[in-house]
Amino acid sequence: MTTTGKPEKILIVGGGTAGWMTACLLNSRWPDIEVCVLESREIGIVGVGEGSTPHLKVFFDAVGIEESEWMPKCNATYKNGISFHGWSSIPGFESYFHPFPAQTDDLLTVPLFLRNVQARLRGDYALAHPDSYFLESYLTQNNLGPLADECFPFGAAYGYHFDSKRLGEFLAEKAVARGVKRIIGTLEEVLLGTDGAIAAVRLEGNDILEADFFVDCSGFRSLLMQGALKTRFMGFEDNLFNDSAVVLPSEISTTIPPETRSTALSNGWAWKIPLTNRYGNGYVYSSSHIDADRAETELRQHLGLLESDTPARHLTMKVGRVASHWNKNCLAVGLSQGFIEPLEATAIALSFETVRRFMLHFERGGFTNQGADAFNREINTKFEGIRDYIVCHYKVNQRRDTDYWRDNAANTKLSEHLSRILYLWQHSENFAQEMQANHLGGSYQPKSWACLLAGYGVFPPLRSSKKSPTAEASQEQDQLADFIRRCALNFRPHNELLSPAAGQSVI
């Protein structure tokens, strides 16, 4: 089947963050196309609070929405990166912070960090823990937000924390105000044409909704893509063991940290996401290693809420991706296309990249599906690159206290891409350079891989007992620390950025 001609009408099945993001993007790029969203009131929201990568800012910039407008309405805060705790038991590497990029990185920080990492990989003593090298690490340690003063010419990328339900509602209001049609109803049947493409959907009450093109944002049910079109789903369970989560809010602290916190527990990990009005907490775990009741008890114990009557919600996750994200006249976005567990908060980034790249390929192909194969390869590569990076967190974990962590460390079902990266880490003379030469960057660049592997302390034994830097190395570290400290003078406390004077309000 080949879609011909610019569609007059696009129907998005499902609302939520994915559905309304898609509506805003399509409406912004193609204002002459009628965009409709079919939304059911019966479908709940998966998360309590969510985090993002810097892609969310790119999205808001693309559709022309200011932070001062959306952040207060979604209880949003800024995110400099993610801190990891308890993933390694190696002394000195029990925790590390993974920052988003800053424009200062390339000046002094990344070259020195990678040089010292390489020295430590040779077995020489060098300060290779990532926390000493990056501006956003320093900002987070000192509770500073990522927005620099006007006089400081170097920016820092950042993400957000937000209430996912409120964000979906906000985007719905914006989309409708810009001309997107909102339809409330329950889908009963997907009607296919003689060519096997989607012709229409039938609602409860027998109303028929026709369109030229359809977008599946129906969540894990994937009613259009996996349901009607029978698109194959490829599970990642051999690589990623976690399939369940329990979520629980808790009281927000007076000082709101600009980071997501990820803490390893007995059979998975717990997130802590600061919103302006609460922490969103959750425990992502493997149901093959721990049952739901024990997981909830462990989370409550971790949070100091064993005696609390705050109810917890239990979720199951379908981890993997569809074989084709664009099939016939249908595009899958969000949970309907796939899901990789939330360790790196990549769900929104994948949704945004899917819609952005679809629009480019659809236009270049004259609004036919001739670009579908290339598009599907790109998105599949994106999914698998992110999967590999997340799998690496588990594969190289430095814990051996439970079967869960031992099973993850012993997992041999790794992609060729991940296997090559881990081989280079152990054997290359210049890890970053050889990653680039072998085109292994993909979704994550050498700096990010080095932060993860060095942050866990994945190094060979030292060749000598010497455990102190040379005078020259000490001077370099002092110069770098002074450089980062002085850069940070141009950034304000995170709480100030969330204050009424800054256009937001802390609840």
Structure description:
The protein is an alpha+beta fold. It folds into three domains: 9-78 and 161-236 and 319-385, FAD/NAD(P)-binding domain (3-Layer(bba) Sandwich); 101-146 and 415-490, no CATH class; 244-316. It is 36% helix and 21% strand. The chain has 16 helices and 24 strands. The chain has helices spanning 16-29, 55-63, 67-70, 105-121, 135-141, 164-177, 223-228, 292-303, 347-364, 372-395, 403-410, 416-427, 431-437, 446-455, 471-488, 494-497, and strands at 9-13, 34-39, 50-51, 77-79, 81-85, 95-99, 144-148, 159-162, 181-184, 187-192, 198-203, 208-210, 213-216, 233-235, 244-250, 260-265, 268-274, 279-285, 313-316, 320-322, 326-327, 330-332, 338-339, 491-493. The strands form six sheets. A seven-stranded mixed sheet has the order 6-5-16-17-18-15-19. A hairpin with a 2-residue loop joins strand 16 and strand 17. Helix 1 (16-29) packs parallel to helix 9 (347-364) and helix 9 packs antiparallel against helix 10 (372-395). The longest helix is centred in the last third of the chain and has 24 residues, at 372-395. The radius of gyration is 23 Å and the shape is globular.
